[in-house]
Amino acid sequence: MGHLTTHVLDIAKGQPGQGITIEVFRVEAGRREHLGEAVTNVDGRCDTPILEGDTFIPGEYELVFHVGDYLRVQGVESAEPRFLDVIPLRFGVADADEHYHVPLLLSPYGYSTYRGS
């Protein structure tokens, strides 16, 4: 059975991104449906899959990473408003029987993502 997982890596500090709130939405016809949220643990991962079972179906999704507070705690100085505060990642799921791993590689002034497994 497929599922959705994520994690956050702070590539500027070379450490997991702990304590980051992540919201998950399903997107249909331009409307976002809030499905839940999680907070990253000491390994920068969520304790359970973000979505699995009947809630994980083919379609378009959005993970929203609330990184501003994490960057403040890490001592990253920034003018207000911060360059990065909330990062939305929108992606498609074609086969809900597969594992979709969508990590966030974060630095104070940039980020990237990819589909892992």
UniProtKB/TrEMBL annotation:
GO terms for biological process: purine nucleobase metabolic process. Keywords: Hydrolase, Purine metabolism. Residues 4-116 form the Transthyretin/hydroxyisourate hydrolase domain. Signal peptide: none annotated. GO terms for molecular function: hydroxyisourate hydrolase activity. Belongs to the transthyretin family. 5-hydroxyisourate hydrolase subfamily. PANTHER family: 5-HYDROXYISOURATE HYDROLASE, URICASE AND TRANSTHYRETIN-RELATED. Homotetramer. This is 5-hydroxyisourate hydrolase. It comes from Vreelandella songnenensis. The lineage of its organism: Bacteria, Pseudomonadati, Pseudomonadota, Gammaproteobacteria, Oceanospirillales.
